[in-house]
Amino acid sequence: xxxxxxxxxxxxxxxxxxLQTAHGTVETPAFMPVGTYGTVxxxxxxxxxxxxxxxxLCNAYHxxxxxxxxxxxxxxxxxxxxxxxxxxxxxxxxxxxFSLAARVKLDERGAVFRSHLxxxxxxxxxxxxxxxxxxxxxxxxxxxxxxVSVPGDRRAAAEAAARTxxxxxxxxxxxxxxxxxxxxxxxxxxxxxxxxAENAASLAAxxxxxxxxxxxxxxxxxxxxxxxxxxxVGLLPTEKPRxxxxxxxxxxxxxxxxxGYDLFDCVIPTRNGRNGTLFTRTGEISIRNxxxxxxxxxxxxxxxxxxxxxxxxxxxxxxxxxxxMLAATLATLHxxxxxxxxxxxxRAALAADEYERFAAEFFSxxxxxxxxxx
Amino acid sequence: xxxxxxxxxxxxxxxxxxLQTAHGTVETPAFMPVGTYGTVxxxxxxxxxxxxxxxxLCNAYHxxxxxxxxxxxxxxxxxxxxxxxxxxxxxxxxxxxFSLAARVKLDERGAVFRSHLxxxxxxxxxxxxxxxxxxxxxxxxxxxxxxVSVPGDRRAAAEAAARTxxxxxxxxxxxxxxxxxxxxxxxxxxxxxxxxAENAASLAAxxxxxxxxxxxxxxxxxxxxxxxxxxxVGLLPTEKPRxxxxxxxxxxxxxxxxxGYDLFDCVIPTRNGRNGTLFTRTGEISIRNxxxxxxxxxxxxxxxxxxxxxxxxxxxxxxxxxxxMLAATLATLHxxxxxxxxxxxxRAALAADEYERFAAEFFSxxxxxxxxxx
Lengths: 374, 374
Hints:
Two copies of one chain form a homodimer.
Chain A: E1 3-9, E2 15-21, E3 24-28, E4 30-32, H1 45-50, E5 56-59, H2 60-65, H3 69-74, H4 78-82, E6 88-91, H5 94-99, E7 104-106, E8 111-114, E9 121-124, H6 126-136, E10 140-142, H7 154-174, E11 182-187, H8 193-205, E12 210-213, H9 222-233, E13 242-244, H10 250-259, E14 263-265, H11 268-275, E15 277-280, E16 283-286, H12 306-310, H13 313-321, H14 325-351, H15 355-366
Parallel strand pairs in A: 4-14, 5-6, 6-10, 10-11, 11-12, 12-13, 13-14
Antiparallel strand pairs in A: 1-2, 2-3, 7-8, 8-9, 15-16
Helix pairs in contact in A: 7-8, 10-14, 10-15, 11-14, 13-14, 14-15
């Protein structure tokens, strides 16, 4: 059900593409807001559309625990359940089990863990991850992978990468054709070039419809993250969509899109919105800061979102200081739209083959530096 | 700036009217959702319009403490501040000071109290209440009145009613013409017919553009509340809008509109929404109840709100159980629309002179009984 084409490509490998799904077309590079439990926190599906969001990420692990994949299937699948008609990608739970490591028993078969919700014991295997995401009926599912907590530990990274390949083979056997849900494999290999290269080659041989880079931004230095991010994308099949998991500060997006990543997700725009940190073209602002108490300006003059069209910084400051729900909603709406606008500009710059100039202008306005300039 | 006309009237005194303000026309009887701090909790102004809300209530007392009436004036007035272009009515703080009685020193001049926010000392007088609401620039302000904690204590009720009249006289002198803000006087008099009659006559002589009934639903039995509500409305000038403060369970609205009240406010639809209690034509449901976990139906088949058009009870149940913000937003949106639909039906029944049949049908479907039938 999944199609992908590259429309334009830069000399550095950045590309403007198009992903076709049963629930609509996604112009790439694309950023997916995170809706872990089947809701992008605080926003209605109508507000997501208003912010020009084309695709979202949910979490199959969390949804399988509550309300249960079988339940969502009975209720017509995840799209219908959450009222979102656009494409959905789900993460399978590899990262969640990694971050709950103390409560997880991991072996070759899969993971056994106790739910943080009710203490009941659950098992997650590569096969079960495929089944769950098919029950949800999502457009793109992620294979169940193995992360390491110290990406610089070579032996652990090698073992995790090898198991990730064996699990990808099991997933492929369990789901020889992808059906309604297309499954992406996740590359591992820590911070080691040869492990990443070997892992990418093994996964590519299994011919999945898309690939992700996993296991980065788990505590290592940013310079290491970015070096590996640039190296890793070049190892993946160019004709398939390439997804960088979980990374997405604005400066990350600008750098990563220059190297050829096509898909992104990150909690930053939504979590920051709830905390009162809002994005502007000239950097982030903390709306709770007293400096905004009498400021009649919108958050960002250049932004066309409902929040910026309707409210002053002073009003958002007031709502945030009073702990009003609407503060979180309006800030999230703005941040999500800010991200989509940034992606629109990234796509335009890639299509026009003006990416280096665009990126330089972005950093000079937004502040901070690209990793390679830093 | 305020106009009011009665379009149709029933034999029992119920009336279909129209209130003209500088910010638009309000078809009456009308229900105002409560936006204490300048936000109807969880809803954007766009969502309020989508729910067909025509007028809202805010609280001048709370807004004067934070962010301050002077601040809101500097920012262009309350309408602009909160992005709501329709009419706004503000309560002045009489009820808030009554409910904080232990921290308030009340005398003939006014009230001195310590803010619950910062412990600073503030003074509220009838004159100051007028000034604050003019600074906010609202369409309708309420005079500062005096409530009693035991409405059945005749001596206290008589004293409070007499002071309320003296304060209304001071307010009238302070604001001889109403300017952009029209001020409504609030009738007091506890549960005593002759005190209410005397109070109503004194206030009517001051010729305010509208009148409210206050001091009810403060702990007395519902039968007493409703008996006095019916008696009191008949004491007020028929050519002016008549506002029942703070009462608004659905069955209250159906009864009170039969007797000739024109305006209402109540926290029930919004507070209940946040708590997961949703209104339907056949009564209230608690969405957190396990009975809804697999229910594909909307909250109310007959409702045209975004929530009912888009989501199942099962999804709302899931959101509420996970503590997701969207649960409160979607439930509030539904409840607010439910109330507006009820008011539309009430207005249609009054206009068609079919109110008794309408009320009987309402109670037979919704459950419960009218006070007079009970």
